[in-house]
From TrEMBL:
It comes from the Eukaryota. It comes from Podarcis muralis (Wall lizard). The keyword Repeat applies. The keyword Kinase does not apply. SUPFAM superfamilies: P-loop containing nucleoside triphosphate hydrolases (SSF52540). This is WSC domain containing 2. Pfam families: WSC. Belongs to the WSCD family. The lineage of its organism: Eukaryota, Metazoa, Chordata, Craniata, Vertebrata.
Amino acid sequence: MAKLLLKFQRYFRRKPIRFFTLIALYLTAGSLVFLHASFTGEVRVAENVPRANEGPGNGMEAQSLVTLQLGREFKETPESLTVARRYGSWFKSPSKDTAARSKIGDYGGTWSRALKGRNVREKEEDRAKYIGCYVDNTHRRALRGVSFFDYKKMTLFRCQDNCAERGYLFAGLEFGAECYCGHKIQAANVSDSECNMECKGEKSNICGGVNRLSIYRLELAQESARRYGSAIFRGCFRRPDNISLALPVSRVMRNMSVDRCVDFCTGKEYPLAALAATTCHCGFPTTLFTLHEREDEQLCSQKCSGEEFESCGTSKYFIVYQTQVQDNRCMDRRFLTARAKQFVALASFPGAGNTWARHLIELATGFYTGSYYFDGSLYNKGFKGERDHWRSGRTICIKTHESGQKEIEAFDAAILLIRNPYKALMAEFNRKYGGHIGFAAHAHWKGKEWPEFVKNYAPWWATHTLDWLKYGKSVLVVHFEDLKQDLFIQLKRMVSLLGIAVLEDRLLCVEGQKDGNFKRSGLRKLEYDPYTLEMRKLINGYIKTVDTALKLRNLTGVPEDYYPR
């Protein structure tokens, strides 16, 4: 074999023109094969991906497998799991006729954008039926449930899936990037041509327009998926003094159940459903009914007339649930109209809940927060102040993780957010290796990354707090754990430092909307303790140092749960 190769080498060395001719012929043949494959127009699906009318992805269109992408809020899954996730039990299976039209390239180049969107919507009808294009404005929303934004990766499916999971009947898209959910459409219908903006994450589909919503009715496979499943139990509370003002809408129900009362209040667009024996009351959390003083649940244990295994309260003690209706009293946000007179830092160690605190401050004040950095993912989720320079003066406060003297002294005041280092280090490690709401892989925890991370970041947790206490001006210390446990009081302290007069009703509204888009799910937890004895000894020393520094300034020391049990 070696002799044969040697002969070929000598042959081409004597006649190089023949060698180059052979290479040219080889490349030409490859190009012809490539061009032929490009013009066949076939859609090739991997063998492990279910085809139309096969397996759990019954009726899935080939185009959907290619174009629909899960957004930032969703964990990436294998294709076989993604099929079941995207086309779960809440969607009816697409018809055979729909599957037959699943070729990419159905749209002619001369079709208008509106017609193209309509064609796609017809294909989507069995999963979510297109209702039409509707007027929308910031003062009176057409859909008044929850909402979320993604200015990079919004798709029809993401919006529909988010609304369906929360039990809503309608999903609407606007400006190509905004998603709104609701149980009732409260706006006028307009021509489909006015919904003409492509989805940011899916150029082939239409996602509303300027102050225009493309609205879909979610075709739920089971009615029970809509009914009460995601309502939040708030507790047992004493009947408010002025019931007609505190809970303005009510109805007597002979066969009372949690389902019926929650559905009734949801239909009336109220975030609270209060069960009082055979009467269902609806309303908002206000100073007349704050939900701050919970009673013993035994006082509300009277069984429902329509469901013997549920409690429906009494005429004096109400069982209260929070419906999926969004309380819009605290959802408006804007930039400051006049330049800020002082620069206030929202300072924290990474992983201490800074993004969550920003969400709360924006809802409480109605003004955007800024950042010392720029994070595109945060901007895409609705933190509009992220793009402003931190000294622009248009934001109410500025996020920062800086801890140097020069950087700290650049601010006129600060809210210093401190979190248990054991929790903060794990949260930042998850963010670093899994994104804002993701998780680090098992290999990262068991590998060299975690010990190295603790070694470098644990000292920073302590020096960050010590530096802000030493160099900061007008520093308000807020412990993350206190903010979670008593949000109303702690948020009121934070807003006072910012110099904003806020009505208590607005703070009560924030309590009901406290979870933002960057809440990491608590369902996935490590099955073991990642901290070694050496790590604990190191971190406990830093906790004692910070505790002493706080007490020397006549401040409350660290919470007891900072020390591991």
